[in-house]
Amino acid sequence: MVLFLVVVALILSSISVSNGAAIRTNSGDVSIEVAVPRGLTRKEYFRSIIDFWTPERMASARPMEPPIIQNDRIPFVDNRNGDENAIERILTRSAPLSSKGVGDPTAAGKAFFVMKNLTYVCSGSVVNANNRDTIVTAGHCVYDNAAHEWVTNWIFVPNYSRDGRPFGTFTSRRLVTTRAWEAKVDYNNDVAIVLVNTNEEEKHVQDLTGAFGISLNAAKADDTNVFGYPVNNDKGETMDTCAAATSATSVLLNMMLQFKGIQITCEMNGGSSGGPWLRNYNSNTGSGQQVSVTSFGSSLVAGKIQGPLFVEENIGQLFTKYQNE
Predict the structure, then answer these.
(1) Residue 27: band (very low, low, confident or very high) from pLDDT cuts 50, 70, 90
(2) Going from the N-terminus, what domains does the chain have, and what CATH number goes with each?
(3) What pLDDT does residue 252 have?
(4) Are strands 247-248 and 262-265 parallel, antiparallel or unpaired?
(5) How many helices (H) and strands (E) does the chain have?
(6) Residues sharing a CB contact under 8 Å with residue 100, sequence separation 6 or more, in sequence order
(7) What is the pTM of this model?
(8) What angle do CA 210, 92, 65 make, to 5 degrees?
């Protein structure tokens, strides 16, 4: 037993990545609405958050690392929610722009936020939702498990490049993650949704960037494009991509973490967390069906990054509940 725990701790130590009010919880999700401080209008407050993110703060923000062992607690979870024989289902279809042209997908972007008075970065994506304001990212990019606190000053900059904000800045109005991530640090559920406000010109993000679709229970082995802003590529100042076939995660990670996600050969590191994993990606239109987000990497599976497979129990329930808000 001692040897087993030592091996588990070794595996977990090798993993790295890639407040408000009105907290809402139920058995499957937990969320918080971003509160406007007394004395400020809603517009004034969110404008102050945009102003907070100067080029200097953006450039100095560090990549967010997922929690590994907290308070001497190993996140060894028993996740039996997933159905290995579930049929692939399209939750929402891609809604690309009508005139994008070849280039990086405009629906992918960079997230900035504050945690413990320090500035951090992650990646994220716009998904096709009724509210036209829905961003998908990783759970550890919105919730601090160690401090049991939500991040603050969260913004999304689609198609970010060297402080360029071609579509403006989108501040968060609600942060959402799974109860399994918040309570158990379960990497099968390291997903989050962020509902954002309109930008400086009162435009909805989806209207400007287009949006990816979401597919649940996708095949674990298939050609996939991953996008993100890792610091090992131009210091995270430009979008990076990997294109390869995914596979089921390694037997070792499955056994020790009970992680049932997927992996892809890719050298992206910190800063890429929350970036989209797309099937049927079309570089001309920017369309694609998202099946995962970048969650973590492990030295035990060198040259690969890991992501939770999208299923009803993680992103499915979050999207269905919040896409109309």
Answers:
(1) low
(2) 2-81+89-322 (2.40.10.120)
(3) 83
(4) antiparallel
(5) 7, 22
(6) 106, 210, 284, 285, 286
(7) 0.90
(8) 75
- At residue 36, what are phi and psi to the nearest 5 degrees? -90, 125
Both tokens of 67, joined, read 């929690």
Q: Provide the β-strand partners of residue 248.
A: 262
Is the pLDDT at 75 greater than 90, yes or no? no
Token pair belonging to 35: 């509160």
User: Which tens digit of pLDDT belongs to each residue from 107-117?
Assistant: 999 999 999 99
- Concatenated DSSP letters of 35-89: PPPTTS-HHHHHHHHHHH--HHHHHHPEEPPPP--BTTB----------TTPPPE
CA–CA dist 314, 130 (Å, integer) = 19
CA atoms of 53 and 59, how far apart (whole Å): 10
What Cα–Cα distance (Å) separates residue 77 from each residue in 188, 189, 284? Answer: 9, 11, 41
Centre a 10 Å sphere on the Cβ of residue 132 and count the other Cβ atoms it contains. 18
Confidence of residue 49 (pLDDT cuts 50, 70, 90): very high
Task: Between 96 and 66, name the one with better pLDDT.
Answer: 96
Q: Are strands 62-63 and 118-126 parallel, antiparallel or unpaired?
A: parallel
- What does the pLDDT look like over 157-195, one tens digit per residue? 999 999 899 999 999 999 999 999 999 999 999 999 999
